């Protein structure tokens, strides 16, 4: 008898467990004191003078995924990403990268982590104004000790990759904000890190330039499959970029899941209010509206992949006037019809993943 094979889960790059970051006097007493740990922000500040920016957070970042951490200002998301490479020292908990304990790394191992394994892309580009685009991109390689010819050759490759070919010899002051951000992205990519860490890199950009940069990240991820941790306060950006999203509030993760899970099955009223204005049909897939096929329904009608959005299904059903089939590997998994699709849009369908038999 054949034993069913469990779905393959990629290995973890970062593994974070029970992480706290507390600012203030005698901060290390807070995580270990159940009474203090249970206080809200105002109560903790009044009792101890401390602020808990990250509270008992645990998650894994899987190899090859875009892991988005999102939340409003003050939710703890930027502090969290800085803890991953100890740009901010955690108060308690554990962090590992590829199984290696980050918190026990000495200064040399930390330098190696930041220079070779996890590159940061910040909101403020941090470009060197007196250097050309090419030399700015090559800067990280220079820090690594790569020879001038080799680093400039590699830098030129990534200048082209981010769409700045022909601008190699310009100075940062001669570039637009979006072009400067592309230089920052190319500089991070040039050192060939295992993980790219983005801390709200596009929030200062104009909307159209911001969208261009989001498309650039999507394209680079599709072409390279590089692991990314992306911090943002913008829900539409999170839904567009993220394979999984950790939604933070007051230093805690209130829900962690795929975009479809967060929009289709909010964990609480806070998340529900957060996603209230999201066009559900553009996030939820046809699995949210799928039902078993009746009689000959599995043999006719437009075919859709299981990861097709409800929006795509609405277009197919409206165009043909027929019930659409959800097909994978030549097998019909179920069908979606007008009533079910409208129910998803109206928010009265079953949660994502539960509509199908």
TrEMBL record:
<keyword id="KW-0129">CBS domain</keyword>
<dbReference type="GO" id="GO:0016020">
    <property type="term" value="C:membrane"/>
</dbReference>
<dbReference type="InterPro" id="IPR051921">
    <property type="entry name" value="ABC_osmolyte_uptake_ATP-bind"/>
</dbReference>
<dbReference type="GO" id="GO:0031460">
    <property type="term" value="P:glycine betaine transport"/>
</dbReference>
<dbReference type="InterPro" id="IPR005892">
    <property type="entry name" value="Gly-betaine_transp_ATP-bd"/>
</dbReference>
<dbReference type="InterPro" id="IPR027417">
    <property type="entry name" value="P-loop_NTPase"/>
</dbReference>
<keyword id="KW-0813">Transport</keyword>
<dbReference type="GO" id="GO:0005524">
    <property type="term" value="F:ATP binding"/>
</dbReference>
<dbReference type="GO" id="GO:0016887">
    <property type="term" value="F:ATP hydrolysis activity"/>
</dbReference>
<comment type="similarity">
    <text>Belongs to the ABC transporter superfamily.</text>
</comment>
<dbReference type="GO" id="GO:0006970">
    <property type="term" value="P:response to osmotic stress"/>
</dbReference>
<feature type="domain" description="ABC transporter">
    <location>
        <begin position="39"/>
        <end position="275"/>
    </location>
</feature>
<dbReference type="InterPro" id="IPR003439">
    <property type="entry name" value="ABC_transporter-like_ATP-bd"/>
</dbReference>
<protein>
    <submittedName>
        <fullName>Glycine/betaine ABC transporter ATP-binding protein</fullName>
    </submittedName>
</protein>
<keyword id="KW-0547">Nucleotide-binding</keyword>
<keyword id="KW-0067">ATP-binding</keyword>
<dbReference type="InterPro" id="IPR017871">
    <property type="entry name" value="ABC_transporter-like_CS"/>
</dbReference>
<dbReference type="Pfam" id="PF00005">
    <property type="entry name" value="ABC_tran"/>
</dbReference>
<dbReference type="InterPro" id="IPR003593">
    <property type="entry name" value="AAA+_ATPase"/>
</dbReference>
């Amino acid at each position: 008898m054949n034993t069913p094979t469990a779905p393959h889960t990629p290995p973890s790059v970062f593994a974070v467990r029970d992480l706290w970051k507390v600012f203030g006097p005698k901060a290390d007493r807070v995580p270990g004191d159940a009474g203090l740990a249970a206080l809200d922000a105002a109560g903790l500040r009044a009792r101890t003078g401390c602020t808990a920016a990250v509270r008992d957070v645990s998650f894994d970042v899987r190899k090859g995924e875009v892991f988005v951490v999102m939340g409003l200002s003050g939710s703890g998301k930027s502090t969290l990403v800085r803890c991953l490479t100890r740009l901010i020292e955690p108060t308690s908990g554990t962090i590992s990268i590829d199984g290696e304990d980050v918190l026990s790394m000495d200064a040399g191992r930390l330098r190696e982590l930041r220079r070779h394994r996890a590159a940061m892309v910040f909101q403020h580009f941090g470009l060197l104004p007196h250097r050309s685009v090419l030399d700015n991109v090559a800067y990280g390689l220079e820090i690594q000790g790569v020879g001038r010819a080799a680093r400039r050759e590699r830098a030129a490759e990534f200048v082209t990759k981010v769409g700045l070919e022909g601008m190699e010899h310009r100075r940062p002051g001669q570039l637009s904000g979006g072009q400067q951000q592309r230089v920052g992205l190319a500089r991070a990519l040039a050192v060939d890190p295992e993980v790219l860490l983005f801390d709200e890199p596009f929030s200062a950009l104009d909307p159209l330039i911001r969208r261009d940069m989001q498309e650039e990240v999507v394209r680079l991820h599709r072409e390279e499959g590089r692991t990314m941790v992306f911090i943002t306060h913008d829900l539409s950006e999170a839904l567009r970029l993220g394979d999984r999203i950790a939604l933070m509030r007051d230093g805690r993760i209130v829900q962690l899941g795929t975009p479809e899970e967060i929009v289709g099955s909010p964990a609480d009223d806070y998340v529900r209010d957060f996603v209230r204005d999201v066009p559900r049909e553009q996030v939820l897939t046809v699995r949210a509206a799928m039902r078993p096929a009746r009689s000959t329904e599995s043999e006719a009608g437009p075919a859709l992949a299981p990861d097709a959005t409800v929006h795509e299904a609405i277009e197919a059903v409206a165009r043909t006037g027929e019930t659409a089939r959800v097909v994978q590997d030549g097998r019909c998994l179920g069908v979606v019809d007008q009533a079910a699709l409208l129910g998803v849009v109206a928010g009265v369908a079953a949660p994502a993943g539960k509509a199908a038999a």
